[in-house]
Amino acid sequence: MELFQEALARLVQDPLLCDLPPQVTAEEIGSQVALEYGQAMTVRVCKADGETVPVVVVQNASVLELKKALRRHIQLRQARQGGVQHLSWKYIWRTYHLTYAGEKLADDRKKLREYGIRNRDEVSFIKKLRK
């Protein structure tokens, strides 16, 4: 394990991967490499509090894959910062919609490109209205 950590520390010093945090995961390295080779894209998710979270997904990702990537990103960030350890994602998706250009991303199976979402586009959380 110690050898792996040393190799990972050297790897993160590479100019291509220098943006990654010191406690990087193999998944984050894979995402960054895929991004550099054009196999992935960054979708900026704007939270209700105004914070923007960059999420990396594959080029042909679905809405569900974006939601899962957002969840992984937030969980990793919370673990590193020592913040709230548990969020109810069931509650979040029951309370908020993801939207792009005023359109709800309602169908989890639909591809992001079908909604017109491209690299570096911004998706927002919008609170659902009560019926």
Automatic annotation (TrEMBL):
GO terms for cellular component: U12-type spliceosomal complex. It comes from the Eukaryota. Coiled coil: none annotated. CDD domains: Ubl_SNRNP25 (cd17058). InterPro entries: SNRNP25, SNRNP25_ubiquitin, Ubiquitin-like_dom, Ubiquitin-like_domsf. Pfam families: Ubiquitin_4 (PF18036). GO terms for biological process: mRNA splicing, via spliceosome. Residues 41-131 form the Ubiquitin-like domain. Transmembrane segments: none annotated. This is Ubiquitin-like domain-containing protein. It comes from Corvus moneduloides (New Caledonian crow). The gene is SNRNP25.
